[in-house]
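Hello Y.,

Per our agreement to keep a running log of every chain we model this quarter, I'm adding this entry. I've kept the format consistent with earlier entries: sequence first, then predicted structure.
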Amino acid sequence: MRQLFHLAIDPGSRAVRIALAEKSLDVELKAEPVWERRQEFLALNPAGEIPVLVEEDGTPICGAATILDYLDDAYPERPLIHGDALARAEIRRLTDWFLVKFAYEVTDCLVGEKLMKRFLVGQNPSSDAIRAGLSNIHGHLTYIEWLSERRTWLGGDHLSRADVAAAAHLSAVDYLGDVPWADHPEAKEYYARLKSRPSMRSILADHVPGAPPPKHYADLDF
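Predicted structure for the entry above:
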């Protein structure tokens, strides 16, 4: 069986898990403590970063964006990118928006500081970074609302890898209770549609030892 080296709260790993579930592809999850720099893992990915998908023949594919591309190339039956060249470019743009921009401006500042540093590697979080993340998220939620007013899903008429990336990052931040849903009801409605998909079930069941999620985290009617 294929394997995914990941961490439960890592949004890149979550994006791959959601994509695999959307495509009905089985995978064995292998929690990887990247800070230990295991030689066996470095042999799979010399960069020492997650996620890493290892196919049944032992071939590793490294990095969330690369894995999402690979999954659509290798398993096109349930595509997560659609349409003509311009439509596909828009989906890729929005995917990068969450995997890169949202990650840098929000997720790294909140999940990275509050969970990854404190609970996983024992470092103190930066209060400045946390304040920045709490401020920055409003602009991103407003953009989600703008897109939701104009499209069925973020990238167009069909669920795409843009929504997969959004679900991964929003769910990671929501694990902390740091998404101001009350201020952004249309973004909340969009996320509620994502939460109701079967591909989100394992994500919503995640728990980080010593840091339980808020009560609404797994509630589909939140």
